[in-house]
Every structure is written in C-alpha cells, then in structure tokens.
Design a protein that fits this description.
Elements (H helix, E strand, L loop, with lengths): L2 H33 L2 H6 L4 H10 L8 E6 L3 E7 L4 H7 L8 E10 L6 E8 L5 H5 L7 H14 L5 H14 L1 H6 L2 H16 L3 E9 L5 E10 L6 H11 L2 E12 L4 E11 L10 H12 L8 H7 L6 H18 L9 H9 L2 H15 L6 H17 L6 H20 E4 L9 E5 L22 E6 L3 E7 L4 E10 L2 H25 L6 E10 L6 H23 L22 E5 L5 H13 L18 H4 L1 H16 L9 E6 L5 H13 L3 E8 L2 E4 L6 H7 L18 E11 L2 E10 L2 E8 H14 L4 E4 L26 E3 L8 H9 L3 E3 L1 H4 L2 H15 L2 H35 L8 H24 L2 H4 L5 H7 L2 H4 L2 H5 L6 H19 L6 H12 L1
Parallel strand pairs: 13-14, 13-15, 16-17, 16-22, 22-23, 23-24
Antiparallel strand pairs: 1-2, 2-4, 3-4, 3-7, 5-6, 6-8, 7-8, 9-10, 10-11, 11-12, 12-14, 17-18, 18-19, 19-20, 20-21
Helix pairs in contact: 1-3, 4-10, 6-7, 6-9, 12-13, 13-14, 13-17, 13-18, 15-16, 15-17, 16-17, 19-20, 22-23, 22-28, 22-29, 28-29, 29-30, 30-35, 32-35
Length: 997
C-alpha cells in the first residue's frame, strides 16, 4: 500500500466534503436569513463566530437535538429543535446559574430537514451587584441616551425626565451591551416597563397585539417583577406560558439591579399553540396575568407544584392556596405534637389526596371570589359536602386516617373562619387571611392545651413563597413588634415552624400584659423565613426584604378600609366590616430601611394610622438611640435591688446579662448601669457572638468603648482581668473533621489563645448564665424559653444558694412560667418581662400619637422637647408599677405571693378596667369630646402636646376608636396605680375624673 497515495485520496475526499459542506452552510445561512426574525441578527451582530457555527451545523439538528454555539463562564448560546416543553427544560438545566440576560428566538417556519422550528437561546451570566451599581462610574454616552429617552417621553409623558434619565443610566450600568445593540424603541420600552414595575410595587404585566417587521401577527407580553425569586424562576415563568398553551416565539429578559435589589424585565412575543392570536382583553390573558403574578408565591420546588400544578390538576393559584393550607395546618397542629404533624407529614396529606385538596380550593373560591352568585347557598352546600367527605375518609390505616382527618378539619376551619383575605388581589406578593380566633375551639382541645387560656381578638395568617407567619392581637387596637426568624438549615426551619404559632401566641399574650399602660392592647407578628441553601448574606437579605415587602402589602390589602370600615379593595370579600387600628414595631431582623418603607406604604395606601403603622422611624423615637426599653428595665432593677438591700447608685454590686453590647436592650442597659452606678461590676455578658467573663468585673473603659458600637469580638482580650475569658461564636477553624471555636483566657497576667471543640463551646455557652454568681441578672437578649422547667435548677449550687438575687427580664419570654415559679419559690426575686421591659412599647405608642398629631416637619422641629416628655412618662410608668408590686408584696402578710403573680394581677386589673371603659365610651360617642374628660387626654399626652393650643386642638381629629382607647387607658391605669372606686361604675366615673384630673 502506498501510504502517500492513500493520504492524498483521503484529503481529496475531504476537500470535496468541505466544498459540499460550504454549499450546505450557505444554504443554511440563507434559510436562517429568510426564516428567523431580523432582530435576531441585530442582537447577534457581535457574535459572528456563533452565527458561523449555527450556519455550519444547522443541518445536523436532525441527528443532534441541540448544538452549543458558545459556552463560557459568562455566556451560553445554543440551538435546538423546538419540541413541546423544550424551552422550559433548557431553562431548568440552568437553574444553578444567575442569568443576567436571556434571549430566545424561534424560526418563523419549520426547518425542512427536521420538520420542527428552530429554537435559539442566548444567555448571559454577568449580574451586577448592588455595590457595583452604586459605585461611581462614567455616564453613558449622550448619543446612546438621546433617541431612547426621546421615545420614552412620548410613550410615558407623565414620567419625570430626571428620573427617566437615571433609569437609563441604571440600565446602562447593568448591561451596556444591551443598550448599545438594541434599537432605541426597544430600550425605551424596557425603561417604560421598569418604571411601570416601580409604580405597581414590583409586579406588572401588559399585553398588546403587534405586527412585526415581517408582518407576523403576535401578542407582546411585557412582564416585570421586583426582587424576583432566585433559582430557576425564569423557567417557572416560561412554564406558565407552556401550561396555558401559549408558544413563546421570541423573548428578551433582563435582570437589572437598582442598587437595592434586582428587577426582572421580560418581553415575550407569543401566539396560541394553534397559531391564532392571543387577544389582550381575553379571559386567557386574565388567566395569564393571574398565573404570572402568582409565580411570586408558588414555590416551584414544592411537591404540590411538581405533582399537581405542572400536570394541570391544579392551577397555579390553587397550588399556592394548597401550600398555604399546608403551612397553616402544620403550624396550628405541630406545636403540641411535632412528630405526628411534622411538616413533611402534613405535606404528604395534601399531596396524596389531590381530590380533597381540590375540593378545599373550591370551597375557598365560593366563600371569597368576588362576584360569586348565590354565594351563601353554594358555599354551605359545598361545606357540607367537604365535611362529609372528611368524616368518611378511610384508607384502612387508622393512625394515618386520624392524622389526615385532623389536618383536613384544620384546613376547613381556615376557610370557614377567615373574615378577610387578599387571595383574589392579583398583584400580591404574599397572602393574608384575617381569622376569627374562634376557629381554635373547633380544631380540638388537644391542639390548644399549651396556649394561654385567654383567646385573642384577631389572628392573621400570612403566607409567602419563602415565609409564613402570624400576627396575633389581644385587643381591637393593638401594637407589638414584628420578628423575622431566619433559618438556614432544614432542621432549623422545621423546628421553628413547628413552634411558631405557640411562640407568637405567647409573645402576643405577654405583650398584652405589658401594654397595660397604653391605649393599645398587645400583639405580635412573627414569620419564619426559609433561607436554606443561601450562603451569601446579600441573597439572604434580598429574600428577607422580598417577604417583608410582600407581607406588609398583604397586610394593607385587608386592613385599609373606607370610612364605614369596609375593606377598600373590592376584590376582598369582607365578612368583618370594621376598621382595625394595628400598630407594628421593629423586632428581630427588621432593618431601618424596611421600617421607613413600611411607614411610607401606610401613608401612601391610606391606612387608618398612616405612617403610624410602624414605630422607630426616622420621624419617630428610635429605641436604640434613646434606650427607651432599657430605661424601664434599669428603673425596675433599681427599685427591686433596693428592696433587696442594695442601693445601685451608692453600693457595689455585680451584674450578668444576656444580649450583645451592640444590642438595643442589652447595650443601653449596660450604658445606663455605668452612667448611674459608679460601683457596678458587669461580670458576664452572653450573646449570639460569644461570651465575655471577668470575675472582677469587665473593664469599664473598654466596655464603654464598644457599647452600642461593637459585639463580643470587638472587646480587646488584653483588657480582661485575671481569670477572665472571651469565647467567640463567629471565629472558628477546622481541624480535620472537627470544628473549633476561639477562646481567649487571661492567666498570670497574659492573654492566652485556645481553640475548643463544639461540645466544649456549648458547655460554656449554655451554662454560664446559670453558674456565674451576680447580684442582678438581666436577660436582655436570647431566644424565648431559654430558661425552662428542665434547666432552672442550674441557678442553684450544691449548697442550694442561688447564683443571683434579682432577675429583671429585659427579653420577652426568656423564662417559662414554670421556671419563674420555681425560681421565686427558691428565693430569687423575678420581675417579669410584662413589667420590666414595657417602656419600649409605651414609647412606641407615643411615637404613633406624634405621627397622628404632627406633620413630619413639625415633629422634627419639636422632637427634643417631645422625646424629653416621653422619657419622663416612661420613668413614671416604670416606677409606678415597680412600687405597686413591692407595696402589694409587703402588705400580703406571711402568705407571700410570687412577684410575677402580682405583676400579672396588675396587668389583668388594668386590662379589665380598660376593656370595660373602652366599651363604655365606644357606645357613648357624645361623651368622648365632652369637657369633663378633657383633663384625661391632657394627663395621657406628653406635656408638650397638652401645653400647646395648636396641637391640643388636633386631638379631636384622632380616629374615634383611638380617642375612646386613650380615655379608657389613662383612667384604668390611674385607677390601679393610684387606687380607684369600689362602687358603681357609671355613677362614680364622672366624679372620679373630676377629682383625679
């Protein structure tokens, strides 16, 4: 064999093949030119190698369903056959990559070799962070800006020119390539979409018929989402079109960051699968909008979505409702029996019984969908049918059937006792259901046995894509903090959701006892955020803001009412029909930016209290800045310690405290202790960031340096005294399979660095608050029920002596009722949370009064004088109760009551008088503004208001319910703290007021 000749023959054949392939490539290129939308070639102008690759390989799609034209870290371009669901499947493959730009193009006709249309997908992965967007950069070229902004002014004439210019600059910062290659009309359109998204509070969709440049009739669907969900969200959006039988012909999707969070801006060109046009005013477009908006809440990773929404058994909104049923039933049932009603088990109940799930969604629809004809009859018929189905439910597995019937009955109770819901408000980011608490008496006594016996006034359930929670209030007018619990492991999430309902209930009940000095009853709002798998702090914050923003808008959907008390939004069917003044306050994981936003939304949307919906705003009394909660805690501690023979202003004494030096309550308590007590020694500080311990007292100068500025790890270890110790929860290292925590110890005058195991860390972290001796213990931070019936004994040594003499509770529910009882029986004086830390909520109440009586400008102008008066009121309220507790204890004789029982009795007495007085005034509106009660208002209000003619006149403009409540509160507290009448209520009320006020 002549090898050279064989090689030459082979090369000749290859040359022929190449010539033939060149002709095929040219034929492919011509087909692309004739059958792909011209915009494709505009947007791909800078990707000539990819176009060459497409023309070279187009004919191979008959053998290879997909070809990759470019694949790099920041870009992916593929071509494939357009098969049913192919776009959705391809997007699923990219779930782990953060798409900054997606461009999808279909050919206008089938490729002759494959009999299928061509689908070309281009993805960019170059998202800009908030820091990158906020960083100073050169402005975009003026020539690039002129034409798009000119067009934008025409299609959006009411837009502010400066704001539109800033929007263009923002778009350019995020994706300069998109701006540079896109026609001006497309840039203008995406800027309009961005502005509409902002106007619509983060959700907007618009459909319009178009004839493209090749006279192809389509419907353009513009869809925008603020702060969209992460992880395969674009695939979920495309899945909506797929389920509704709509083909996406072209799509351009941009993800831009506005310096706070991202926005997803999508332009879809669609037709029906049968080739006909999607009419903008059709029912199908209304379904599309409902489904697209619902993607904010429907988790595509849930089993309900995977098993029942994707296959069409449930619509997207129905899937969301079933997931809400799951969360509601789990949280209501698991707190008493977490094993039987584990979240996984409750999910399985609905997933394995789709027929009952579907019936429950229909029951819900009949009760709440606007415009349902013959509603009551239809609903009652369906309710009877569903109840019958549940009673007869029998799989032959007795244990499972009992669990499932309990779950289904709970779901029925949710529907039957809901009085308002925003479920049929399309542009929601979260669901809200305002329930009559009477439902608790229908789900079974075993599921309420661990709750306080007193029933709330209202329960509101909230459900979002990554969060669920409750607002529970014990009075018509109620206030309390909003706590967001962030969970980042499955175990943490399950544990917190299992105990969530009971935690909110107990905290709200405690708050009600605490709120006795103000006109608002007690409430609490808490949500559990699922941040599982999010290791990036910015992504956690982004998700937190998304859920908080969704919840507060859902709250306003159902609580913004007209002058008659009916919900203002006609899409909310209202079975309650009264205004509900509810005030919130910042608590765990509530940032200043969100506080300000909530205040603005309350005002913009016309809530009864306006920006008074939340406290601690800039135009308000910041708790941390003024230390309002700690002022009460330390005042109570001072009076209690004096009863134990220690004058905190003069004597030497020791303190141990939970909560970080940078925390509101703990930090300000330390500040006040150092300011008031020259001889105080803080020997122990335990917080989430670690432990500081010094048996001779932590260095005061060093503590003052970090208080309200830094955490445990900010304390310089060389400042520890002999035997002192610093243990750090956030400074860790790995040694093989072990995780070690840093520990600093002062020995022989020198700081020593050690590394301890997880077991050793928790041994000290969990026990030092019990074992370190101190005269005063102030729990000012930490999780509820840290001290319970299983560990309270650790406060006592082998000799039976307690490790502290007085506990002043600065943290809510840090001790369980049983633990409190046992500690007091053993000789420790305990001032419970409902008394000791009440001043924070009193301050917030007066902030809301300021919001209602003064403009922002007026408040800022007079803030110093107003706050000074409020601080005086706080000291007065704390001192009044502390002295009353001591007085009642001293007068009890030999049978000494528990200190906490006295506190509870005082709260109950004031709240009882308040309820009676509030009802009295509510039924006699003519009395509220009468001269005889003028002094009551003046006594309750800060001196600055009472002494100002201008502001005093405005009191009559307060909502009627609030004026009734102020009168009731001031009279009730005065009655209990200063003594009251012992005779007939109605006949002595006027005389009492005349004498006292």
């Amino acid at each position: 064999m002549d090898i050279k000749k064989e090689a030459a023959r082979l090369f000749t054949k290859i040359e022929g093949d190449l010539d033939e392939q060149a002709q095929t490539c040219l034929s492919n290129l011509k087909w692309l030119h004739d059958n792909v939308h011209p915009y494709f070639f505009i947007t791909m102008a800078d990707e000539r190698p990819a176009l060459v690759g497409l023309a070279s390989n187009l004919h191979r799609l008959a053998e290879n369903r997909q070809i990759t034209l470019k694949d790099s870290d920041k870009e992916l371009i593929t071509a494939s056959l357009d098969l049913p669901g192919s776009l959705y499947t391809n997007l699923l493959d990219l779930e782990g990559r953060a798409i900054s730009y997606a461009e999808i193009t279909h050919s206008l006709s089938d490729h002759p070799l494959t009999g299928c249309e061509l689908e070309i997908m281009r993805y960019e992965f170059d998202r800009k962070s908030a820091a990158e967007v906020n960083a100073p950069t050169n402005p975009p070229p003026r020539v690039a800006m002129k034409a798009p902004l000119s067009l934008l002014q025409k299609i959006y004439p009411k837009g502010d020119r400066g704001r539109l210019r800033r929007a263009f600059e923002l778009l350019y910062k995020n994706n300069p390539r998109y701006v540079s290659i896109s026609p001006p009309e497309r840039v203008a359109r995406v800027l309009w979409l961005y502005e509409k998204a902002i106007e619509s509070k983060g959700l907007f969709m618009h459909a319009e018929p178009v004839l493209d440049v090749v006279k192809h009739a389509e419907t353009r669907v513009l869809f925008a989402v603020g702060n969209p969900p992460e992880g395969g969200y674009l695939a979920q959006v495309v899945g909506v079109f797929n389920r509704l039988g709509l083909g996406v012909r072209r799509a351009y999707c941009l993800n831009i960051n506005n310096g706070i969070h991202p926005y997803l801006l999508c332009t879809f060109y669609v037709t029906k699968r049968d080739g006909t046009i999607l009419e903008p005013d059709s029912e199908l477009v209304r379904d599309l909008k409902a489904e697209l908006y619902n993607t904010q809440i429907l988790d595509r990773n849930s089993r309900i979505y995977r098993d029942h929404v994707k296959d069409g058994l449930l619509t997207g909104p129905e899937g969301t409702l079933v997931n809400a049923f799951i969360a509601f039933c789990h949280t209501n049932l698991a707190h008493t029996d977490p094993d039987r009603f584990d979240l996984t088990e409750v999910r399985r109940v609905f997933d394995s019984n789709p027929a009952i799930a579907k019936q429950l969604t229909e029951l819900f629809r009949l009760r709440f969908e606007p415009g349902v004809g013959n509603r009551e009859k239809s609903y009652n018929k369906k309710l009877e049918e569903v109840r019958s189905h549940i009673e007869q439910y029998n799989t032959g597995h007795r244990h499972l059937d009992m669990i499932r019937r309990a779950v289904f009955k709970c779901a029925v109770a949710m529907v039957s006792y809901t009085l308002r819901t925003n479920f049929y408000v399309l542009e929601k980011h979260s669901i809200a259901l305002r329930l009559d608490p009477a439902y608790l008496d229908t789900i079974g006594a075993e599921f309420t046995a661990d709750l306080p016996a007193e029933r709330p006034f209202r329960i509101t359930f909230f459900f979002g894509r990554h969060a669920a929670g409750y607002h529970i209030g014990f009075s018509d007018i109620a206030r309390g903090g909003w706590r967001s619990i962030i969970t980042q492991t499955p175990d943490d999430f399950t544990t917190n959701t299992s105990t969530l309902f009971r935690e909110v209930y107990v905290l709200a009940h405690t708050q009600h006892l605490k709120n006795k000095d103000i006109y608002e009853g007690g409430s609490k709002l808490a949500i559990v955020l699922d941040a599982i798998g999010l290791t990036n702090r910015d992504l956690v914050t982004q998700r937190l803001y998304k859920e908080q923003f969704g919840l507060i808008n859902a709250f306003l959907d159902i609580f913004v009412t007209d002058k008659d008390g009916q919900v203002l939004d006609p899409r909310v069917v209202d079975y309650y029909g009264e205004e509900e003044p509810i005030e919130l306050g910042p608590d765990e994981n509530m940032h200043d930016e969100m506080v300000e936003l909530i205040g603005r939304l309350g005002r913009q949307r016309g809530y009864l209290l306006g920006n008074g919906i939340i406290s601690s705003k800039e135009v308000g009394i910041n708790h941390k800045e003024y230390g309002v909660t700690s002022l009460g805690v330390v005042t109570f501690a001072e009076i209690a310690m004096k009863a134990r023979g220690i004058d905190m202003r003069r004597d030497e004494f020791t303190v141990k405290i939970t909560g970080g030096p940078n925390g509101d309550v703990a930090g300000n308590a330390m500040r006040l202790l150092y300011e008031r007590s020259k001889r105080v020694k803080i020997v122990l500080v335990v917080s989430g960031t670690g432990i500081l311990y010094d048996p001779k007292g932590l260095d005061k100068r060093e503590m003052k340096r970090i208080i309200l500025k830094g955490n445990i790890d900010s304390f310089r270890p060389e400042k520890l005294g002999e035997g002192g110790m610093a243990l750090y929860s956030r400074i860790k290292k790995r040694e093989g399979l072990r995780e070690l925590y840093k520990k600093g110890v002062m020995l022989d005058g020198k700081p020593n660095e050690l590394w301890v195991t997880t077991d050793a860390f928790h041994q000290e972290f969990d026990n030092m608050i019990f074992t370190v001796d101190a005269d005063l213990f102030i729990p000012a931070g930490g999780r509820p029920e840290t001290v319970d019936e299983n560990n309270w004994q650790k406060f006592f040594g082998d000799d039976g002596e307690p490790s502290c003499r007085v506990i002043t509770e600065g943290a809510n529910s840090f001790l369980t009722p049983k633990a409190r009882e046992e500690l007091q029986l053993k000789g420790i004086m305990d001032i419970r949370d409902a008394s000791a830390n009440k001043c924070g909520v009193i301050s917030s109440s007066y902030e809301i009064i300021a919001n209602l009586l003064m403009s922002d400008k007026e408040f800022l102008e007079h803030k110093d004088a107003y706050v000074k008066d409020v601080l005086s009121i706080l000291v007065k309220r704390a001192s009044s109760e502390a002295n009353l507790i001591l007085s009642r204890y001293a007068s009890a004789g030999d049978a000494k009551p528990l200190w906490t029982d006295i506190s509870r009795a005082i709260s109950d007495e004031i709240n009882s008088q308040y309820a009676k007085l509030f009802e009295y005034f509510s039924k006699r509106p003519e009395l509220v503004d009468s001269q005889v009660f003028k002094g009551v208002f003046e006594a309750h209000l800060p001196r600055f208001i009472s002494s100002s003619v201008k502001f005093k006149r405005r009191v009559k403009g307060l909502p009627f319910k609030l004026r009734c409540a102020i009168l009731a509160s001031e009279i009730a507290t005065t009655l209990v703290y200063e003594g009251g009448w012992e005779s007939d209520f109605d006949s002595l009320l006027n005389q009492y007021v005349k004498e006292r006020f």
